[in-house]
Design brief:
Layout lengths: L1 E5 L10 E4 L2 E5 L6 H16 L3 H17 L4 H6 L2 H9 L5 H4 L9
Parallel strand pairs: 1-3
Antiparallel strand pairs: 2-3
Helix pairs in contact: 1-2, 1-4
């Protein structure tokens, strides 16, 4: 995975890193711990499985749906997106990516 340290992306203050098409952008004050790298590698696998652009379409549609479910709580909606549930739930397991089943974000 390519990593780019910068001051701009991701926008805002709440997030320190974002994976765009397999390129990890992270802010200068963020440490890329093994946990963060694993989280983002899980997202890279998800993106490849869905051929990148459909990943973002599904992600956005699901996020909008989760906002409705969370009654406007944007952060709670973000944490409940299936892609994020898989990544957060397995980011601490260094061997997860190697044994991850295809479409693991929807396998529960």
């Amino acid at each position: 995975m390519i990593t780019i340290r910068n001051r701009i992306i991701p926008f805002g203050r709440r997030f320190g890193a974002i994976n765009l098409f397999g390129v990890l952008f992270y802010k200068r004050n963020i440490s890329l711990s093994p946990r963060v790298m694993n989280h983002e590698e899980i997202h890279s696998r998800q993106m490849r499985e869905l051929l990148y652009v459909p990943f973002y379409v599904v992600y956005l549609v699901e996020w909008l749906w989760r906002i409705v479910e969370a009654r406007g709580d944007v952060y709670a909606a973000y944490r409940n997106i299936s892609f994020e549930r898989e990544a957060y739930g397995n980011e601490g397991d260094g061997g997860y990516v190697g044994r991850r089943r295809r479409f693991g974000m929807w396998r529960g």
